[in-house]
Amino acid sequence: MTDESDSTDAGAEGAAGDGPTPTPGIHHVTCVAGDPQRNLDFWVETLGLRLVKRSINQDDPGTYHFFYGDAEGTPGTSMTFFPWTDLPEGEVGAGQVSRTAFRVPEGSLGYWEERFDERGVDYDAREERFGETVLPFRDPDGLPVELVAVEIPDDDPTTAWTAFVPESAAIRGFHSVTLWLDDAERTEGLLETMGLTESESGADAATGNDRTRFAAGGAVGKYVDVVETDRQGSSGRGTVHHVAFQTPTDADQSGTRDAVASLGLRPTEQIDRHWFRSVYFREFAGVLFELATADPGYASDEPLDALGERLVLPGRFEDRRDEIEAGLDDVTVPRPETEFAANRAD
């Protein structure tokens, strides 16, 4: 992904001429990791997400790019990582996504606490936030993550991956991201321009300041929480590189890009990322935002039942396969040896 400085029915009505089609919510979140094998082991085996794509950083092809998601790689479910082994540990601060939260079924947090105890995962006591119960924890690189217990409706667009975790506890896509900003006013206006609506506010446990929630119209990854802080941070292992928002079609993306540019921000031209088309820009407080289309999707170049099984190289890199593979660390994708692999309906 670049580091440029400079759906549901959330859409159809919003395009009626008053501005861009509202985003349904988060598309993916991309983070910085260290050791690639450790990252795979944790996100696949411990958290039970599916490796839906094993590829390379298209701006740094000597580095892996891992994509984890639900069983089908549904938009709104994929957490992705660049494992840069030579980077120092980062520090979360203003101008960053400070927390990434996932949805899990109501009643499953006890399962997760027991699992974290068994596997030595660093987690904190549950907290209540806007009427929901949140379980904060950290991945092996120190990345702050949360599980939020919610009711998963029968018609939910996500599909649980149950190779390592039963369906009754499986992660079902994003719940929210939290932005830490030194000055939130213009960013809040940007979120409203993108189609999110301020929904509620309350005290933030981590900073002692206010937390304001903005909601999109989709079913997955619909919330963005904004917290003002003057804490200083640094990029590196255990931090978020960027957050991508859904602009399902090229027309949706173009409209949002124009609206962003009209606010004085500097979005890139559209960039083909092989599984989606992207536009990038830094919002007013410095967080790197991406706009991502829904198609062609992670199953466009691999059978659905074989996602993540091989190293996929976007077309322009294929003639360099031998060179690229020789420069990457050998990794092994965890294989299920549990009852859940044989009985996905658990």
From TrEMBL:
InterPro entries: Extradiol_RC_dioxygenase, Glyas_Bleomycin-R_OHBP_Dase, Glyas_Fos-R_dOase_dom, VOC_core
Protein name: Glyoxalase family protein
Transmembrane parts of this sequence: none
Domain of life: Archaea
Ranges where the VOC domain occurs: 25-150, 173-294
Pfam families recorded: Glyoxalase (PF00903)
Compositional bias (Low complexity): 8-20
Region Disordered: start-end pairs: 1-27, 324-346
Organism listed in the record: Halorubrum sodomense
